[in-house]
Amino acid sequence: MIFFPTADEDFQYFRSQGYTGSLNDMHYKAMGDLGYTGSLNDRIHAYLISEYGSFYEAMRDLRNGTSVFSLLSAYAVNGFDPALVFDFVGNYFRKGSADSTFAASITHARASSATMVNSSGTLVTVGNNVPRTGHHTYNGSAWVNEGILYESEARTNLQVQSGDFSNSAWSKSAVTVDTSYVAPDGTSTASKLTSTGAAGATGVYDVNSTGAGKSLTCFMKAGSSGVYGWIEGIVGGASPYAVFDLESGTVVHSRSCDASIEPVGNGWFRCVVANTTISIGFFSIGGSDNTYASGPWGSSDLTTGKFIYAWGAQLEAGATQSSYIPTTSASVTRAAETLTVPAASLPYDSTNMSIQMDGKMTYADTGISSEVEYYRWVLNGTNYINSTVQAYSSKTGEPVFSQRESATALDSVVGSGNTYAPGTNLPFNIAVRHGSTFINAANEGTLLTANTTPTALPNLSSTDLNLGFDFMGTIGQFRMWSDDLGDVGIAEAST
Questions:
Q1: Whole-model pTM?
Q2: Are residues 327 and 227 in the same domain?
Q3: Is the residue at 147 inside a domain?
Q4: Which of 91, 243, 324, 354 has the lowest CB atom count within 10 Å?
């Protein structure tokens, strides 16, 4: 049996949610907040069709007493609708409990072009200050919208002629190069590297004089059956390298690096040799008949006529790989990005607030206290709220959630070490409840232990928030409430 509230109960509920005016006015606004337009009747009609597929089905369920209606949005948690919603996956934005847009809610900046992957799986370039929303990754069978691709660090591809291995910038060793194959960006510029059967390493290489590279990447695709791809950064001695099975998409061997392989569709993989222990001055790419556990360069002969495909080489100074930066005759820099949420968009409350954020992050363990900083809401050094992942000493992958008010000491809730092991595209979902007398958090649905020592929240009412302050990866969703979701709520929100 359906429960229908009385008019008074209905009125009081909407008042409690911040709506004003007559009951019809509040119903009209609430339906608008759910994304419906037109008259009140139009909005209700559209809602019923959306929920039930047809008006007939809605009426049948009403008569049968099986319908359950809620004007809470899909973003609500524990009975509380967020006042701020940035749904980068669903392309829905809300501020002040009203529908908004990306541009009206948040400020994005990047003083250069950048690359991303669109819904069809094509690597595309967007212009200066264009946010990379709708970035997709390949899960092995389909392209998945991950939200906004966002990189707070500027990066430079030090490798020239990144997409043209036939160019004289690349020296050849026992290999012929044909650049007429479809690359991940849809152009016919990918190279087929075919062995001539000569002794020595089968591949291409470039002596990079910068000596600054610490991460090497290249897009590779299987050619002849049983042929492995490899990347090596020659520095003498124990040079960092990795060998990749391009048919199964696995890392076979690696040394002195963080090696990974990511499917990017159409049989292509992005192969990674990152976080090397020494700067790289010699970038080599090639194929071999075996796994070469001792390192491929100088010994990785390949049978005559066997081949692999390769494209898009990148040598950069960062400890992790970043999005692809194409080059021709000179190195190219992709500028750092910022996402600033103006104070006017934020639901600040001096008593209770809750925050949720999810996405995928990439980080390396470099031994610092903030390898990742999901967001930073800072007035000054003694008044702030932030959330980080630290890898200081033995605390690799330890989430830390903090608030500080000038009259009190720093108050934090700390998760366990190794909660998030270093790597590429690591899924995360965090939620935090901040109060004048408490702070608590949850990650991946796991509730931490509340800190009840705070005596006040910092006054951040006129302070902008930096989303993804120190962050490399994708952001799916960011929500804020001027409410305390409770421990049950943050556990739910982070699931």
A1: 0.85
A2: yes
A3: no
A4: 91
Segments of the chain with pLDDT less than 50: 1-4
Shared domain for 342 and 322, answered yes or no, is: no
Q: What is the DSSP letter of 449?
A: P
The torsion angles phi and psi of 187, rounded to 5 degrees, stand at -90, 160
**Number of domains within the chain:** 3
Q: What is the pLDDT at residue 305?
A: 97
In this prediction, residue 70 carries a pLDDT of 54
Parent domain of 404: 84-107+337-493
Q: What is the per-residue pLDDT for 1? A: 36
**pLDDT value of residue 3:** 43
Which among 442, 92, 163, 449 is positioned nearest to 309, based on CA atoms?
163
CATH code for position 389: 2.60.120.200
Best CA proximity match to 202, nearest among 303, 302, 308, 313? 302
For residue 142, is it within any domain? no
Which residues, listed in sequence order, are joined to residue 378 by a DSSP beta bridge? 384
Residue 409 sits at φ, ψ, to 5 deg, of: -80, 170
Predicted local confidence at residue 321, as pLDDT: 95
Q: What is the pLDDT of residue 2?
A: 41
